[in-house]
Records
---
Amino acid sequence: MVMDTIVKTYFQYHWINKVVNISAENEFKDKYMDTNNFKTITGGDSIHVDAKFKKAISYDVYAKLISLVNKLPDVIDTSEGYFRRVLIIPFYNVFTNEKDDKEIGVKLVSELEGILIVALKGLRRLVDNKYNLTESKAANDILNEYKLEQNPIAEFFQDEIICNNGVQIKQCDILQHFKKWSIKNGYDDWKVISSTRFWTLFRKVLNDKGIDSRNTKKVKGITIMIGITIK
């Protein structure tokens, strides 16, 4: 089942006793992927499974989702609840007809014993690590890039904000600067972000970096943020 179907449909009986769901072609028709079903399936919680002419049941889904994509899905949900469920493995090689090895199947058969040994070593490492996957710098780097892409406010903070005990700035100036920055950097959808949503996401970035988002003061009715300013 492709990811676009998984995130849109109600839970069905095909999840019963399924160990893994592998989908090779994944194109998302909507602008943003709805993460609700994705998080439910990958969260280890019981789901309500319903189907026509069958009795509804509760079931603990344990299937792993493996999806091949050319482009990572855009999401509105930028919480760790989503990102901690995502492990991105980048494939940078491009295979063309010139590089196509017609004998690859035969060659792999001759290497099956070695491939099995590598897999068993990996399994032993996984067991010894209490079933936590070994961290990869390449995977961590691309996940961090994905986080920045999905929450431009985090990228804006990284590029444009200075943290220092001796500085301060009007809160409204930060929002206006972000809107100009978003246009300059190609985030056209974000230039019309509401004030409420912006400050919710901005304060989340502050808190994630260990900065007290409540460190403000009022001067003649204007909110001043203390400890940060624009570069």
---
Amino acid sequence: MFGSAALEVVFGLIFVYLVLSLICSALNETISSIFAWRADFLHEGISNLLDDPKVTGLAKDLYDHSLIQSVTRTRRRRFFDKEGTRYPSYLPKDMFSLALLDQVGAMGKSAGELKQVLEAIPNEQVKTVLLTYYEEAEGDAKRFRAGVESWFDQGMERVSGWYRRRVQVVLWALALLVSVVLNADSVRLASTLWTDDAVREAVVAQADRAAGESPDQLADRVGSIDELEIPLGWALDKGDPRDVPRDVGDVFSKILGLMVTSVALTFGAPFWFDILRKVAGVRSAGVRPRRDAPDQEPESPR
């Protein structure tokens, strides 16, 4: 019984962490979209790739190409009646290679003409890179384009790293904010799940349903947490588990509980969903139908 209850407490905490992580992820994605981080990092990555940090040369020409313009959105700022450019947040590698080679005049050239065109590129870094891929391709146009696309992919790996680091920093801040605003105190949550059988059963039931769903369906679980009588939010009434701490011991416990939750949320929703499913599997494997003990031991087989 003790082991089963302890596992259910852990299972319930994992479910709460999953739901709160989904909230953090949604906030993070909203912030990223508002500030166009993906587009900005892509823009910076391409300018670095083409050795054009001020975006006044080849990088500007690339973004002005009709292929790139077809996925670039112009938006009007409502209050200032001005137009601004929203750069694409993603570029396929074939679109990049076609636009770049077209801008440097390399499209439709024979092997000999192509080398002359590449040698005439004023941007030394780009010229060196393209000539390297040209020599490696031995004049084969398809292999040459594949090399250019591989170069682009390598640059985009760095861009992805920049984006992940930015998102991770913001996630830390959001995890702390969500934990404090919702008073998601892990110590108090664990205590409630341990002492209140009804709450624990309700949370475990929701967790079981969530474990059987696909990742796309998890967003529906955010609203379900309001239906559970777990101590989230703040209160001023004495005796309420959400009460503001009133002595040193309670303050220490509250800080510890909030910090534990904050750290847990930084692992992200995919991590907690994976853990939830694994623990659900352990619980399912451990559940056995109860049988009354027989009055007599069965006879040994002969």
---
Amino acid sequence: MEGGAAMMIYFWDFAGTRFTVDI
């Protein structure tokens, strides 16, 4: 995954529209 957020990766689920934070 590209970006400047190496500490936290945000994943968005379109199926259930839920917010998941992966550390």
